[in-house]
Amino acid sequence: MESTNTSELERLVSRLSNDLAENFFQTIQVLSTIINFTERFYEGSHSRFVSEKSADLARLLGLNSEQVFEIKMAGLLHDIGKVGFIDSSLYKFPHEMRPNEYKQYSLHPELGKEILKAHNGFTKIAEIVHQHHEKLDGSGFPQNLKGNQIHPGALIISVVDYYHNGVYKNKRENADNGEARITNTQSYLGNTNNKHSSVIGFLMQKKGILFDKKVVESFVAVVEMDRRKLGGKTVLRVPVNQIKPGMVFVESYHTSFGLLIAASGAEATSDHVKALVRFAEAGEIPHKVLVLADPEVPKK
Ligand SMILES: [Fe+2]
Ligand SMILES: [Fe+2]
């Protein structure tokens, strides 16, 4: 009798935890779709870059799988507090903002925490989101936390976020107008080389002061390797509905659940195209993806 009760209980617990996991992932999907509205002034997806690179760094720095997952989700959701912001608070850098714009901008970590803490499963993620603009020396916001008062996940996101803003945030006049045409970036790397060097220079100069030293050093190693892999190749940013079989993906594209849709280095197939269009429509991946301009596809 007792064993029957135990197995019923186990089944109930297992069903409840599956339901909770399902509910958790659906919530993340809804939130990450909403975040797309804040990302129109970036080259590519800001939250996805921050999420994936932060998770890579967390893994590299030896954090456990639960922490890596929390950091990945916090990276994806870190700027959710910007939903509803006026455009000038989205495309300007903080030092360019007028007092009213800066006031709105400075509220976003707190707003993000408030949005996320409504869900029990998001308590730790909300805490990391709240702290993602804190700096090691206490000069960050909103709580002026210092050193080890700051969550390791927030220290990681802070570095990746700073880098992506510095290199891939576009000014209003350059913002993607969403037109469905092929945009040849004529050396994606070339266009970002200067910004890349100056942002990396700043991070290295401020490691141990504003940013965690180990995080900066690991990030620089990862990002330099990514760029070396791209080499001098020319890449195109192509709308997903114009991807042709045989084109080679430069980056990997995942859903917010971590499901791989297209792998970096893989040749596009017609199945890829269907999946990319479907997931782009659902806001799961960017509407334009990076492919090699002149792939040296080995002939079979
Ligand atoms: Fe932020
Ligand atoms: Fe950000």
What does this structure look like?
By secondary structure, the protein is mainly alpha-helical. Helix content is 52%, strand content 6%. It folds into two domains: 220 residues, Hypothetical protein af1432; 68 residues, no CATH class. It is built from eleven helices and five strands, in the order ααααααααβααβββαβ. It has a three-stranded antiparallel beta sheet with strand order 1-2-5, with no helix packed on it. About 5% of the residues have low confidence. One fe (ii) ion binds next to helix 2. The site of one fe (ii) ion (FE2) has 5 residues, from helix 2.
From the structure above, extract its key features:
about 300 residues; mainly alpha; Hypothetical protein af1432; 2 domains; 3-stranded antiparallel beta sheet; 5 strands; about 50% helix; about 5% strand; binds fe (ii) ion
- In helices, the fraction of residues equals 40-55%
Radius of gyration: 20 Å
- The strand line-up of the biggest sheet is 1-2-5
As for the CATH topology of the largest domain, it is Hypothetical protein af1432
Low-confidence stretches: 173-187
What CATH architecture label of the largest domain applies? Answer: Orthogonal Bundle
- Note the total helix count: 11
Number of domains: 2
Detail the topology: elements first, then pairings.
Elements: H1 2-35, H2 46-60, H3 65-77, H4 87-91, H5 99-106, H6 108-116, H7 123-130, H8 152-168, E1 183-184, H9 188-205, H10 213-230, E2 235-239, E3 253-254, E4 260-262, H11 270-281, E5 288-292
Antiparallel strand pairs: 1-2, 2-5, 3-4
The structure holds fe (ii) ion (2 copies).
